[in-house]
Write a structure and sequence with these properties.
234 residues, alpha/beta, Rossmann fold, 5-stranded parallel sheet, binds zinc ion
Length: 234
């Protein structure tokens, strides 16, 4: 059945070729979502092993943590930023899975994941998740898990407060906006573990810090690290 499906898909592609989600050119055989050129052009950060990298700098002095990293640079109005937009607002879970898998390969190669026991994707408020149909950070986490086999804890932490968008807020407003919005629902899932908090885009880090504070105060998690698929430099 699978073989028939694959042949059908190939045939369909012949007449209705899929296009690259970054440059819009037709995808060639074996390419998926991004063409090879755009895959190679992702503005990667390459900082998994650099101490005091810009993501770690962002979290310095906020909460105790082990490591922090991000996959690529997020620059507004670029096609790569648009990829994240499609993941969040256009139902493109497949983009999240692909980016998560690519990130998973990079993280694994760099040794960043050594000692990390589980991933906690930043939770969405249930209302927003119902509207969107999925949590984009959980989709990214699933991509990382597909490569690394690391467990995902999707229900250990919940978002109790539905915040408004952070986009038009400055750093202080962002910190206030997300303070106390998370709750630990199942502390036993976190106890004794080195937790990787995963976000889609890190801007000031305020959301991740709030989530980390909640985990550290309300469970016996051993330690925290941070990762996000994109780092928005301000
Ligand atoms: Zn392309």
């Amino acid at each position: 059945m699978n073989a028939i499906f694959e042949r059908l898909r190939d045939l369909l592609q012949l007449f209705f070729p899929e296009t690259c989600d970054v440059c819009g050119n037709s995808l060639r055989y074996g390419e998926h979502i991004l063409c090879t050129d755009c895959l190679l052009d992702i503005p990667l950060i390459h900082l998994h092993n650099l101490e005091h990298n810009p993501v770690e700098e962002l979290f310095a002095g906020s909460v105790p943590f082990e490591r922090a990293t991000a996959f690529f640079n997020y620059q507004k109005h670029t096609q790569y930023a648009h990829l994240v937009h499609k993941l969040k607002y256009q139902g493109r879970e497949d983009i999240g899975t692909l980016l998560g898998e690519l990130f998973g390969v990079a993280l694994q190669k760099s040794g960043f994941l050594t000692g990390i026991d589980a991933i906690v994707p930043i939770p969405l408020h249930p209302k927003r998740q119902r509207k969107r149909g999925y949590n984009q950070s959980a989709v990214l986490a699933q991509g990382i898990a597909n490569i690394t086999g690391i467990a995902i804890l999707e229900n250990a932490v919940i978002r109790a407060v539905n915040t408004k968008t952070q986009t038009r807020k400055n750093k202080e407003e962002r910190v206030q906006n997300v303070q106390g919005i998370f709750e630990v629902a199942v502390p036993s899932q976190l106890d004794g573990k080195h937790i990787l908090i995963l976000d889609d885009v890190i801007t000031t880090g305020a959301t991740c810090i709030s989530c980390a504070e909640t985990i550290l105060h309300h469970s016996n998690a051993k330690s925290i690290s941070f990762a996000s698929i994109a780092l928005a430099q301000r």
